[in-house]
Amino acid sequence: MNNGVISRRKATNYGIIDVGGIEYGTMSAAALYNPRKMTLEKREKAFLKRRINLGEKFGFNGYMMFTSRQQDKNGSYKIIDEDVIKSNPDGCKTDIKEDILIVTTETPEVVIGHATFDYPVIMMTDIKKGFTAVAHCTPELIDSKLPMMIADSLLTVCGSRDQDIYAYVSATLGPDFSTNKYPIWAKDKELWENVITNESLNDKNLFKINLRKAIAKQFEERNVLYYSMNDVDTITDSRYFSRYASNSKELKSQKKLGCNFAGAYYKKLGR
Fold first, then answer.
1. What percent of the chain stands above pLDDT 70?
2. By residue range, what is the domain housing residue 55?
3. Distance between CA 164 and CA 184 in Å, rounded?
4. 189 part of a folded domain
5. Which of 26, 39, 50, 240 meets the CB 3.0–4.6 Å disulfide criterion with 234?
6. Distance between CA atoms of 159 and 237, rounded to whole angstroms?
7. Cβ–Cβ contacts within 10 Å for residue 181, how many?
């Protein structure tokens, strides 16, 4: 998939949403990503309206979009079940500390995902058992093997077999992603070998980072057999916000400051 919008598997009514905030509106109520003069109340109302519009377009409940602040950073997971839904009428206001969110066919039209700037959201679904796990994977969390832990969470919760897991990687940074020093978060030298490459450009020493390649290496190690990656480059794609582009001395553009969104859900049968 390369259009950065939506993917559905009709057999299970499984849906993936992967949208650019420039195209659909910033996916956050935070002051930094909204007009300066807007009050918190107005920002929250505007964000809710964007979520409702997105839900109407793609077939989910705009109130039921759950995200996590990923405090644990150890592969912890939380299942968004009926109890969670009933006690949290607005998913985006729910405080969830776990790293991985899980949803099932028992709770259709409920989205689990993450507002993103550049780094990918990885979604894995067991198509036979109707369980889906999602996590936002920063470079630090990729180094900590979180992509592999997503598959492990499905194994723990519903006994998923490797051959029944389908993975998807959302839009992320493209080939221009680089740092001027070897990143301190890259502690797993074997993982980042041939993924972080030292190059010279215009007399500058750069370390280029291929996040998709690092994720693919972990999928192979964990025996995640079936996966696809959105090839959208958040740095250059006009539909997507990019913190990297907004902060870069060469690319600096306030127009690229904002939040995208990527996540997964199940549609109601018949919709």
1. 93
2. 6-173+211-266
3. 36
4. no
5. 240
6. 38
7. 8
Q: For the whole model, what pTM was predicted?
A: 0.92
Q: Beta 14-19 vs 260-266: how paired, if at all? A: antiparallel
Question: Cα–Cα distances in Å, from 232 out to 19, 124, 225?
Answer: 10, 19, 22
Mean pLDDT across the chain: 92
* CATH number of domain containing 43: 3.60.140.10
Residue 201 lies in a domain: no
Interstrand relation of 111-116 and 77-79 (parallel, antiparallel or unpaired):
unpaired
Query: Does the residue 185 lie in any domain?
Result: no
Write the DSSP assignment of 82-132 as a string of letters: HHHHHH-SSGGG-----SEEEEETTSTT-EEEEEESSSPEEEEEETTTTEE
pLDDT for 215 beyond 70 = yes
| Selection from 110, 134, 131, 104 nearest residue 121 by Cα | 134
User: Which pLDDT belongs to residue 124?
Assistant: 98
Residue 182 lies in a domain: no
Count structural domains, the chain: 1
